[in-house]
# Entry
Amino acid sequence: MERLDKVLANLGYGSRKEIRKIAKNGEIEVDGKIIKDFSMKVDPYNSEIKVAGEKIFYREYVYILMNKPDGVVSATVDNYDETVIDLLSPELQVFNPAPVGRLDKDTVGLLFLTNDGDLNHRLTSPKHHVDKVYYAEIDKSVDEEDIEVFKNGVTLEDGYECLPAKLEIINANEHGSEILLTISEGKFHQVKRMFKAREKEVVFLKRVKMGPLELDDSLDEGTFRELTEEEVKVLKAI
Ligand code: URA
# Structure
């Protein structure tokens, strides 16, 4: 049970002071009754709470799937660039979600955000090896040798030996290639550095999958949606 004013403040309905005013105006209903006592304890999950006639949807955590656009940084704050948090609606920003792992400023595609710190940690911890699938366009012809080297763990220019990765060629010729790459770790600039180790350059990079989450065709770049309960369940089970 939580105080009514705290429940509504958590959801971004205003400061406690503003909520008290809304309550005094008779605009808050709990289970069909107008409640002016903002300190009343309510069960936010099971009571029907309405503000100005609109039913609230109470939750502690939010789970958001975004199709990250080019030119936006995967951080919560930045002095120069627009962040993925700036793209969210104010209703979601009040939950203080953070990106789970990072995509480079010029990488697009699937980015998962949440304020569930445990889940964030589990999905990004090097112990857990969550598969991430990237679609990439490469400046040169990708070949069988690249597949073999990535399968055995390519060594980056700083000597780091990557875990085995699965490289699939969609098409390749002397003008460039399109590929899918599955990796289970998330080092800084990892995909770009893996190709650099093969003297090839990533010219376009898009994440299409992370664990059980797939990029939604319905999500345009720069848009987002909350995960369904079923998707959250599957994600937490990994
Ligand atoms: N690998 C990269 O090089 N960049 C990303 O944004 C993600 C993976």
Summary: Residues 66 and 224 are 4 Å apart (CA to CA). The domain at 2-55 is CATH 3.10.290.10 (Structural Genomics Hypothetical 15.5 Kd Protein In mrcA-pckA Intergenic Region; Chain A). The pocket of uracil is lined by residues 103-104, 107, 189-192, 205 (CB under 6 Å).
